[in-house]
Design a protein that fits this description.
314 residues, alpha/beta, 434 Repressor (Amino-terminal Domain), Rossmann fold, 3 domains, six-stranded parallel β-sheet, six-stranded mixed β-sheet, 12 strands, elongated
Length: 314
């Protein structure tokens, strides 16, 4: 049986009073009689009603708070998205609580429960890890998921496979036939599994021999694992900016720099590295859209919306 999400209007109807009276009880207005307060509070307790903290906060009743669950704070892409989100939230005078899941589904469930206990009813979840829709649907408040598509949950997601294909296609058009790939472990559903699968699909379609290594999401991993790619390769594709930075360091030390493509943008790389192909994945756009969708929910629009963020190839 589906749990009912009670509103102030529902409570007022059950108590046979006006919504304003229920609001005064919730806000501890001393003008409400003790008898009325007890009557309304008893109904609130019996149905487990929890007021929408974010919506009340937007009306100036209390401090607005939004919970944000990121995968890893050292991810370049997530950091860009988070930075855009924070700017948009601060503009609305909303305070974020930021926690890290480290690609662990159980941690996501734990953080959602923690937010519930603290009466935080609006959250943004970065969905790079394999994330069950069942876990997310247990959340009864406002929610937007970033990076993953869900049919029944509002989300802002990327074209991971299309982006890798576009970069491979550009390298292929330049005449490269031995293209190495530095990717992320499959425990990362989007940056990892989906991007790697796109690389492998391109290789199969164009009869290229795959040459790839999967590793962690940081610069040192890119440096260490670039050496593990089979030789020779005449171009390199990196799944993330962090891996690209590490790979460039390795290739320059080996004096074997070659054309390199990656998802993301890094001004220093673009300034110092020749023959570089970067791709604006829309991280900042995703952050702004996620906040906009969340604000719509806070203000009463509960329509599920999915928005695909487009990328731009440089």
């Amino acid at each position: 049986m589906t749990e009912k999400n009670y509103t102030i209007k529902d409570i007022a109807k059950l108590c046979q009073v006006g919504k304003s009276t229920v609001s005064r009880v919730l806000n501890h207005d001393p003008k409400v009689s003790e008898e009325t307060r007890k009557k309304i509070q008893a109904v609130i307790d019996s149905v487990g009603f929890k007021p929408n903290r974010s919506a009340r906060a937007m009306r100036g009743v209390q401090e607005p708070i939004v919970g944000i669950i990121v995968s890893k704070l050292n991810s370049s892409g997530e950091s860009q998205t988070l930075r855009a989100m924070l700017t948009a939230l601060y503009r609305q005078k909303i305070t974020p609580i930021i926690v890290e899941s480290q690609f662990d589904e159980k941690q996501v469930a734990h953080h959602l429960n923690l937010f519930k206990q603290r009466q935080v009813d609006s959250v943004v979840v970065f969905g790079f890890s394999p994330l069950s829709e069942k876990i997310l649907q247990q959340w009864r408040g406002n929610m937007v998921v970033i990076a993953r598509y869900f049919k029944n949950i509002s989300c802002v997601y990327y074209d991971d496979q299309g982006a890798i294909y576009a970069l491979m296609d550009k390298l292929y058009a330049q005449g490269h036939r031995h293209i190495g790939y530095l990717g992320i472990h499959d425990q990362d559903e989007t940056t990892g599994r989906l991007r790697t699968q796109s690389y492998l699909n391109f290789c199969q379609q164009h009869r290229l021999s795959p040459n790839f290594v999967l590793t962690e999401l940081d610069i040192d991993a890119g440096y260490q694992h670039c050496a593990r790619l089979a030789q020779p390769f005449d171009a390199l594709l990196c799944a993330t900016t962090s891996l690209a930075v590490g790979a460039v360091k390795y290739l320059q030390e080996q004096q074997s720099m070659r054309p390199l493509a990656y998802i993301g943008q890094n001004p220093l790389l673009e300034h110092f590295v020749p023959n570089l192909i970067s791709l604006n994945f829309g991280y900042e756009q995703a952050g702004n859209r996620a906040v906009a969708l969340l604000l719509e929910q806070i203000h009463g629009n509960k329509t599920v919306q999915q928005q695909l963020i487009s990328f731009q190839l440089s």
